[in-house]
Write a structure and sequence with these properties.
heterodimer; A: 98 residues; alpha+beta; four-stranded antiparallel β-sheet; two-stranded antiparallel sheet; 3 helices; 23% helix; B: 505 residues; six-stranded antiparallel β-sheet; 14% strand; elongated
Chain lengths: 98, 505
């Protein structure tokens, strides 16, 4: 798997922009990727030093929809989130580099 | 902040302003905040997105655009303060660069008004003398207002002072006057479309005066001139009108011819019009009047000692006469002064050099338009409706007023400058006096309310009119060569009064 396949996209939300101030960047990553792979991929893509990687699996929410035939239920896709902590003073331009 | 100024002609100052980076940045941040609350960015609650997110989402330009107005406002205000410039009209932005933020504005400032040697201008003060005859005439008019018309009990020939109801038509050289006038009016229209006033000026006054009866005649004349063409020229039908058998009001031949006429008579009277008659179609010509007398009424004038106007003169005819004379003299004096001042201002304006910014003229034109609109508003036509009626846009209407606006500005500016030069000042006590004087015209029970207004929101207006009066008095003094010499002290102080006069205006 190459780095681009591991790091799928940055997650830009209110919460995550607040975390960026602490040098923590959040990405959606491939579900098959593990922490060492993510670390290597981030270091390679953004040319930074990664101190820590925290990952979690985000379960897709079940969505219930009313149709003529009654209720149909489905599930949004599940994905893997990784919060990457960089060494102090380093940063990533999340808009430029992906 | 870096500001460079450059003086341009027409009383414009060009300001090149480069606001401090801190100011720009602060405004950009504020603009981003404003934008954030307006736009919806997924992942963020409204108003919570940080600036760099918005910049990436919508582009830097959007924020800059949003911030530009504010930056310019703030920087412009600061620059004016820094350079001590007082704009007198809307400034215009000439150039704008965003990175680094720099702009150039053209600020119209108080125009330089270079007066000619207005103190050397002399105009003659011409006052018409009030003779006993003029007073008598005014008295007669006063009496005339209370005339009572009475049907004749028994038919009799018309006498001096009677009112005749007639159908009258006038012919010059065998042609009906109404037709000649219609032709003349048409020729006039073709010559010059704009000048339709003059056509009305030449509308006849058949009888040689300005009495009400004549005014009626003119009106019906206008109304009938249209179908006059279809009629036979020899037809005796003319317009109905009333004539008062009075030597002073009718041309002599007409007067003589009608004297002794009976109701039902049809007369043809030739009369030679005076050379200086206001209607040039008939001036100096022989006019044939075809008159059919329909009715004769006796005019009963009230006795002098029963005149209702006597009430205001404590019932005394001599007092009334004196009051009338006083009123006439005051009118004549006011008129003479007004004309003198107008002539004076005209010459001052002609001798003054101006440097008036276009924006100032435009602003004046704008206010002129709105003054006009206010007049129409009385008839229930608002500005938009009015513009629609004349088929012009707001811009066009303002454009058309540029010329009168410039003229009126010129005299205002010249007068303002004179006011400064002459160092005319206004004391509070003078305004108080004027307020008291104005109050005299009101009924005692109204005075309290009026006083409140005059001493409150209307006080500046009163002050302005007092100052205006002072200025006019001084102009008359200058024109007649009786003005006091200006002291050097006064000229030096002239600059100080600038602010005072401006508040008065």
């Amino acid at each position: 798997m190459n780095a681009h396949d591991i790091i799928i996209r940055p997650i830009i939300t209110e919460k995550n922009t607040a975390l960026m101030e602490q040098g923590k960047y959040t990405f959606e990553v491939a579900q098959a990727a593990n922490k060492p792979m993510i670390k290597a991929a981030v270091e390679q893509l953004f040319d930074v030093t990664v101190l820590a990687v925290n990952t979690m699996n985000v379960k897709g929410k079940t969505k219930v929809r009313r149709t003529r035939q009654g209720f149909t239920s489905g599930r949004k896709r599940s994905w893997k989130k990784a919060v990457v902590t960089l060494s102090a003073g380093e940063n990533i331009d999340i808009f430029a580099d992906l | 902040m870096k500001v460079t100024t450059e003086r341009l002609p027409k009383s414009l100052i060009a300001l090149d302003i480069e606001p401090d980076a801190a100011l720009v940045d602060r405004e950009l941040a504020r603009a981003a905040k404003r934008l954030a609350s307006k736009v919806n960015i997924p992942g963020f609650r409204p108003g919570k997105a940080p600036r760099f997110i918005i910049e990436n989402y919508y582009g830097k330009e959007v924020i800059q655009e949003e911030a530009t107005d504010e930056i310019i406002q703030a920087a412009f205000k600061e620059a004016l303060k820094q350079e001590d410039i007082e704009p007198i009209a809307q400034a215009t932005i000439e150039k704008l660069e965003l990175d680094p933020f720099r702009f150039r504005v053209l600020v119209p400032v108080e125009p330089t008004v270079t007066l000619g040697d207005y103190r050397a201008i002399r105009e003659d003060y011409e006052e018409e003398e009030i003779t006993d005859e003029i007073v008598q005439e005014a008295m007669d008019q006063m009496r005339d207002r209370h005339v009572v018309l009475q049907e004749l009990e028994e038919p009799r020939p018309a006498q001096e002072g009677d009112q005749l109801e007639v159908v009258m038509d006038s012919f010059v050289d065998g042609k009906r006057l109404a037709e000649l006038e219609a032709e003349a009016a048409m020729a006039e229209d073709e010559d010059d479309d704009e000048d339709d006033d003059s056509a009305e000026d030449t509308t006849d006054e058949v009888a040689d005066s300005t009495s009400d009866a004549d005014a009626d005649a003119e009106e019906s004349d206008d109304a009938e001139s249209d179908d006059a063409d279809d009629e036979d020229a020899e037809d005796a039908e003319g317009e109905e009108t009333t004539l008062i058998l009075d030597e002073k009001r009718l041309v002599p031949e007409l007067y003589q011819g009608l004297l002794g006429a009976q109701a039902g008579d049809e007369l043809s009277i030739d009369a030679t019009m005076p050379e200086d008659h206001s209607n040039e179609l008939i001036a100096g010509k022989t006019v044939t009047f075809k008159v059919k007398v329909n009715d004769i009424k006796q005019r009963i004038l009230p006795d002098w000692d029963e005149l209702p106007s006597l009430e205001e003169a404590e019932g005394d005819l001599d007092t009334l006469r004196a009051k009338t004379r006083e009123r006439l003299e005051r009118n004549v004096r006011d008129n003479a002064r007004r004309e003198l001042v107008n002539r004076f201002i005209e010459r001052v304006v002609a001798e003054t050099e101006y440097d008036v910014p276009d924006a100032m003229i435009r602003e004046r034109a704008h206010s002129l338009l709105h003054e006009q609109a206010e007049q129409f508003a009385r008839y229930g036509i608002d500005l938009d409706r009015y513009l629609e009626l004349v088929g012009k846009t707001h811009e066009e209407a303002v454009d058309e007023l540029l010329e009168p606006a410039e003229e009126s500005l010129r005299s205002t500016l010249a007068l303002r400058q004179i006011l400064r030069n002459e160092n005319l000042k206004l004391e509070d006590s003078e305004v108080d006096e004027e307020v008291e004087r104005l109050l005299e015209d009101y009924k005692p029970e109204q005075r309290a309310i009026v006083r409140q207004r005059l001493e409150g929101d209307l006080r500046p207006t009163v002050a302005a009119s007092v100052l205006d009066q002072k200025l006019r008095d001084r102009l008359v003094e200058i024109a007649t060569g009786t003005a006091p010499e200006l002291t050097a002290d006064a000229t030096a102080a002239a600059t100080d009064t600038t602010s005072a006069t401006e508040t008065a205006e």
